[in-house]
Amino acid sequence: MIVVTGATGQLGSRIVESLLTRVPADRVGVSVREPEKARALADRGVRVRRGSFTEPAGLAHAFEGATRILIVSVDRMGEETVRQHRTAVDAAVAAGARRIVYTAQMGASPTSRFQACRDHAATEEALAASGVPWTSLRNGFHASSGLDFLAPGLASGEVALPADGPVCWTAHADLAEAAAVILADESHRFEGPTPPLTGTEALTFADLAALASELTGRTITRTTAPDDTFRAHLVAGGVPAETAGHLLSIFTAAREREFATTDPTLSRLLGRQPVPVRALLRERLAPGPSGGQPFMRSR
């Protein structure tokens, strides 16, 4: 059995859907914090069990009988995040999993300027020490994050963000399909970290603003906001100071080209070219159900 954690989240749900096109539903299990949100999966024959990275006993039940377990990283940063990941790794080992797959990020390193990448590196250390074969999916930076940063500028005509560098923005759907391919087909086996799983181009926010100008027919200008100004703006808007610092570190890391690498591995896994950022931006700009002005879709 293949067990996927976080199966009601943005990435995990897509992974399960792609997996179900490759293996029978009775070979798929999900570990979710709120099983009622996965009722539709249960109706299709997927094994649904409650599991939380903060409750080892529950994970033992959720992981029971699994040969491959996908640990979808939590959407937080810092020491507590790494502790939760270690709990999930320990539970997978105790369950007798023959392979653990983990969703990391390109640029994962203990010396990264981005906290999430340091967290991923610490989790990979736990995986390496587990004694179980493991694969860490070095996913390209989620394109939805870049488009969320861009969104206010689409309304105002000015993308005012800290200085950045090229980032290989990559679609959730493509990363989910690649994860499903690796889980379902053991011929696609990676020992340890994969090469970066990325789209084919690395773009700056100046590039994204130019694309948005082209697609909307309006002039959208990229301007540089000082780091301190950006952080203060986030905090004034209600973002906790620590989180604001983490968000700023995305730009700090991008300036050092931590997310600039492009690699053909994702294309090979998909058997096609990844979805380009232009197409993702065009989708974001699509008219709403009632027509009229373009709107920005939520994540």
UniProtKB/TrEMBL annotation:
SUPFAM superfamilies: NAD(P)-binding Rossmann-fold domains. Residues 6-141 form the NAD(P)-binding domain. Gene3D superfamilies: NAD(P)-binding Rossmann-like Domain, UDP-galactose 4-epimerase, domain 1. It holds the Pfam family NAD_binding_10. InterPro entries: NAD(P)-bd_dom, NAD(P)-bd_dom_sf, NmrA-type_oxidoreductase. It comes from the Bacteria. This is NAD(P)H-binding protein. It comes from Streptomyces sp. R39.
